[in-house]
Amino acid sequence: MEKEVILKALQDKFAQDIIRLGQQFGDDIIQIKKKALLPIVNFLRKEPYEFTMLLDLTCVDYLDDEERFEMVYHLFSLKNNIRLRIKARLKESDLKIDSVTSIWKNANWLEREVYDMFGVQFEGHPDLRRIFMYDGFEGYPLRKDYPLRKRQPRIPLKRG
Amino acid sequence: MGKIIDDFPRWEPRRPIEGGFITTKFNELLGWARKYSLFHYPFVTACCGMEYMSAASAHFDIDRFGAGWTRFSPRQSDMLLVVGTVTQKLAPVLRTVYNQMTNPKWVIAFGACAVSGGIYDNYAVVQGIDRIIPVDVYIPGCPPRPETILDALIKLQEKIQKQEQEWRWKKK
Fold it and tell me: What is the pLDDT of residues B124-158, one digit of tens each?
């Protein structure tokens, strides 16, 4: 199956949820509204498209934009050998998106990482807690407004 | 057949040194014994571990300097090798490991990350393990060459030889 067929099928079915289509680094990008995430990935996960692999799931902080955070999902179809990137923007005031753990198991830890580093809430995640940073760590270190020199040691350190 | 070699020098017991004893200071004897019997505990957290393995194995072989015995319990070791990046999350663990070691004990900071945090000047990484525990020898390099490690070991041995030794029944 060609990727044009998949993109055409997506555009036909989710015409009002897709904001724009693009291309970068040889892969197609679909920018969607965040409420349409689950229907779209469900659609792509099933036959005949079969995007069975979630290669990566991450977030980007665009500090000055109105919709500040951008979720990025990298999908791969083993059957059709096609990569696809899905992006959805989130506002800081409403930093929530549906969890995709029900579709890809590995999304569990990836979403915990994004929660840990950016503070995005994933609705429907079975175990949403920090994965890298320790208990008692305040703030989200990969946000652009996290202070560069801020340190939160667990034990008192000698001055260096 | 050939002739039997009869003029092969016979083994004779060596005559003892005149007087039969040597004199030294107890402190120096203890330092001499300790510097050649370092049991080390590798606290390996990052890529420097590859260089540690190289130094510890047959090619470079720290056993030549009396430090070949790797212990995997801090209670049995007296040289702590902190090899690699230590994060804020790991800092309490490193301090516990150090506290569990029995005296006498020495610490080597192995590689740029353990020495100063290295390239990681950020929210996660401790900027040098000397902020958590005392350090005897610092090994620079990212990662250090095995020769540097051997050099550091020899420097630590010099330090041990010269330092004031502690022992159990010492008057304080």
Answer: 999 999 999 999 999 999 999 999 999 999 999 99
Residue A157 at interface with chain B, using a CB cutoff of 8 Å: yes
> Which residues constitute the domain of residue B62?
39-160
CATH T-level assignment (fold) for domain A3-123: Beta Polymerase; domain 2 (3.30.460)
Other Cβ atoms within 10 Å of A107 Cβ, number:
20
Q: Say how many domains are in chain B.
A: 1
When CB atoms are compared, the residue of A150, A154, A159 closest to B123 is A150
Is residue B21 in some structural domain?
Answer: no
Could you tell me if B111 and B83 are in contact, meaning their C-beta atoms sit under 8 angstroms apart? yes
Dihedral pair phi/psi, residue B151, rounded to 5°? -60, -45
- Look up the CATH number of the domain holding residue B117: 3.40.50.12280
CB B12 within 8 A of CB B107: no
Mutate one of A151, A152, A159 to test the B interface: name it (highest B CB count within 10 A). A151
Global pTM reads 0.82
Does B167 fall in a domain? no
Is the ipTM here above 0.85? no
